[in-house]
Design a protein that fits this description.
DNA primase, PRIM domain, Rossmann fold, nine-stranded mixed β-sheet, five-stranded antiparallel β-sheet, 25 strands, about 15% strand
């Protein structure tokens, strides 16, 4: 590392500005004793000062209860020791009023069994979807990383922790130590008395940078270290730093239906007097009254041991309204954190086979009773010793395969060769490309079919390509476009296409809290399914029409779980089918691609869909004339529409659409232009091939070289190499004389 005073000064200023903007954060320094024990301790001005009675000097006790302690806040001189490598310095993030200026997630590989890079990529992808800028530094060990979000102003630690926890969960990162996730800093929502909380080591440690090239800033898109020097690294950080406003944090938490835990003062601790009359489920009221252990958890919350607290969660987590009671009981548990409690609840529901047993409870709490059940929940849900016939029945007949063979059922097109009845359709693209706008254009076109007929000699078509046989109605279930933004969009679209105005009466959206956005509803929730089916039925009765299409935009907003888990994702998708079959509607599901414009999420998504349409960004060159008649070439952003899967009708050829100033789409004639993204990836493949130093490169070697150069996965590398072959950037050979494995060469000039 360059030991340049100006560089060190600049780095120190950056740390002060973004890690300690209030000048109140307490510093900690790393130490190593002669016994070999090591750790961090607060920087104290009176450390080992005999005159003031330093406990550490007199008794070797810790500083926590020392009356002479005088903690020092982070300052430039302390930071300089860290940057130069003299001392490794950490910082306590929580300042006055339980607030913080940033939040950090620690992903690591302590046992060499985790994959922090994979988890990090998922976190970067989900942050991109929610438009949250992440700042990533390698950890001191170089086996993991610290992922930061910086705020424009200090916000409640509980609010910051709620945001980071939500992003981690939505990225599908397991918070129960099965992943590389280690901690969130700050670890607490609030502190009591003179507590400092938990610290995190600062980046740009002189010793780590010099010896391991660690604690350096990474590029979020490639996860490579920014620059070749310390100076370049801090310059990258300085240029890219963005601060998140608290108003945007509040907006995200509101959209995610996350309530932030309010601060609880030390004076409020004590026994919990819970008003059980407010709990809707009478069975749980009764259970708490008759179960000695749950009464103990209710009345002695302030002195519960951790095993007792967790056992209580495992009992109630599976029950209706159980989560509410868990939080009420836990509020005065000394280590309570809303986010951690939510994680425990999720773990109990998803990862445990069922409620905890009385035998397990008695390992930490002796109730002195034998209630004749194996677990407390059986006191209200007693299992039958001899199973009775289930009174629930399904309306079900049967059909032979012969009848299926002989009777031909008509597959009715909604849009010929584009969308058919009952064909679950997936439309996917990167964020911001125009998926929602394109879907609105489709809905308006099919809703306005009759109006177009009166003005056209020929039947109306979608984008002059696909016939629209009859008028159809659409319901939008979406979370990304407010009523105000939708009004502005529709006003402009109808200004350009007058026929759309009359079609608006056939397109609908639920109105909740005076807006058309829906948050916190999941398709795998039976209550939401029932509500939606009833909503569609009543809408059809009131409007005297048939809802034909239901648009779900985007999938991630209505899926409550890890989007990379096939089983959980399939449950959500099957629930969408259940609603579709019950209402005789056709679902169109909108899905975000990842940051590399590739498929994102579980493979179940793409297996489930009967019809898949991919949208890719494409730039074309056009000739435009200015006011003086001069012409020039300009690049115009377009959408390349690719039919990727069709189970029941022929696939259409790819084509390109361009939006006009009225936000409606029309096809671009005979363009052979490649998108900038495809050109860039093809050029990268060529560079990887050349970097091998060989004229003929094996498939395996090219994949390895490309993965090393770009940090992409094996699957992505294969796809990008295929793009390079298809677009003739490189040549592929399968000559048997050189073996069965593909070989690649550069094209002959």
């Amino acid at each position: 590392m360059e030991n340049n005073l100006s560089i060190l000064s600049e780095a120190a200023d950056l740390i002060q500005k973004y890690w300690n903007p209030s000048n109140k954060a307490i510093a900690a320094q790393y130490w190593m004793s002669q016994s070999g024990k090591s750790g961090f301790s607060p920087v104290c001005a009176n450390k080992k000062n005999r005159a003031v009675g330093c406990e550490l000097f007199l008794t070797q006790n810790s500083c926590k209860n020392c009356e002479s302690k005088l903690y020092m806040s982070l300052n430039t001189s302390i930071i300089a020791r860290h940057l130069s490598g003299e001392k490794r310095i950490g910082i306590y993030p929580i300042i006055d009023s339980n607030k913080t200026s940033w939040i950090a997630a620690d992903l690591d590989n302590h046992d060499n069994m985790k994959d922090p890079v994979s988890d990090l990529k998922k976190l970067v992808d989900i942050a991109y979807v929610f438009q949250v800028k992440l700042f990533i530094f390698t950890s001191n060990s170089n086996q993991g990383c610290h992922v930061y979000i910086f705020f424009q102003e200090s916000i409640l630690a509980s609010k910051a922790r709620a945001l980071m926890t939500a992003l981690l969960q939505r990225a599908g990162i397991n918070l129960n130590k099965k992943s590389s996730f280690d901690s969130i800093f700050p670890k607490q929502d609030y502190l009591q008395n003179s507590e400092l909380g938990n610290l995190i080591a600062l980046p740009w440690s002189g010793e780590a940078m010099t010896n391991r090239r660690a604690t350096l800033y990474l590029k979020p898109n490639t996860l490579q270290i920014c620059g070749d020097s310390f100076e370049e690294n801090i310059e990258y950080f300085k240029e890219e730093i963005e601060l998140l406003p608290e108003s945007y944090v509040d907006k995200l938490l509101s959209e995610m239906q996350i309530t932030v835990q309010k601060e609880v003062s030390a004076q409020e601790t004590g026994n919990l007097n819970l008003d059980l009359s407010k709990v809707e489920n009478n069975k749980l009221q009764y259970l708490i009254e008759i179960c000695e252990f749950l009464r103990h958890c209710k009345n002695d919350a302030a002195i519960l041991s951790e095993p007792e607290w967790y056992n209580m969660i495992c009992i109630l987590a599976h029950e209706y309204k159980g989560a509410e009671l868990i939080h009420e009981f836990s509020k005065f548990y000394p280590k309570y954190s809303k986010n951690e409690t939510d994680c425990k609840i999720i773990h109990a529901v998803n990862d445990l086979p069922g409620p905890i047993t009385c035998q397990k409870i008695k390992e930490s709490f002796a109730c002195g009773k034998d209630c004749g059940v194996t677990c407390p929940i059986h006191l209200i849900n007693k299992p039958n010793s001899t199973p009775e016939k289930n009174s629930a029945t399904y309306e079900c007949s049967y059909v032979s395969f012969l009848e299926i063979f002989e009777v031909e059922l008509e597959s009715k097109p909604i849009i010929t060769n584009f969308l058919y009845e009952k064909d679950a359709t997936l439309i996917h693209a990167k964020g911001g490309l125009g998926k929602s706008l394109l879907t609105t254009d489709i809905a308006l076109k099919v809703a306005s079919k009759d109006e177009f007929i009166s003005n056209l000699a020929e039947p109306p078509q979608l984008w002059n390509k696909f016939l629209i046989p009859q008028t159809r109605s659409t319901l939008f279930i979406q979370s990304e476009n407010s009523r105000i933004s939708l009004h502005q969009r529709l006003k402009k679209m109808c200004q350009g296409t007058q026929e759309y105005v009359k079609g608006l009466k056939r397109i609908f959206s639920p109105l909740i809290n005076e807006d058309v956005c829906i948050f916190g509803k999941w398709f795998n929730d039976q209550a939401f399914q029932s509500w939606l089916i009833e909503f569609i039925t009543k809408l059809e009765e009131q409007e005297k029409l048939k809802i034909d299409i239901v648009v779900i935009d985007p999938l991630i907003s209505f899926h409550n779980g890890d989007e990379n888990d096939n089983q959980i994702m399939r449950a959500t998708l099957d629930a969408i089918n259940s609603v579709s079959y019950a209402t005789k509607t056709t679902p169109i599901v909108i899905h975000h691609d990842n940051r590399n414009n590739d498929y994102r999420g579980a493979s179940a998504i793409f297996d489930w869909a009967r019809n898949i349409i991919g949208l890719k960004e494409e730039w074309i060159e056009e000739i435009q004339a200015d006011t003086e008649g001069e012409t020039k070439k300009v690049k115009t952003k377009c959408i390349n529409v690719v039919h990727e899967k069709s189970n029941n009708f022929p696939m259409f050829e790819a084509f390109t659409l361009k939006a006009n100033k009225y936000l409606t789409f029309a096809p671009v004639a005979n363009t052979n232009c490649l998108s900038d993204a495809i050109v860039k990836r093809c050029q990268d493949v060529v560079r990887a091939l050349m970097d091998t130093g060989e004229t003929v490169v094996t498939n395996k070697k090219l994949i390895e070289q490309y993965m090393k150069m770009t940090n992409f996965s094996n699957t992505t590398a294969r796809n990008h190499i295929k793009d390079a072959v298809d677009n003739e950037f490189i040549c592929q050979s399968s000559d048997e004389s050189i073996g069965k494995e593909y070989r690649y060469t550069l094209p002959k000039q």
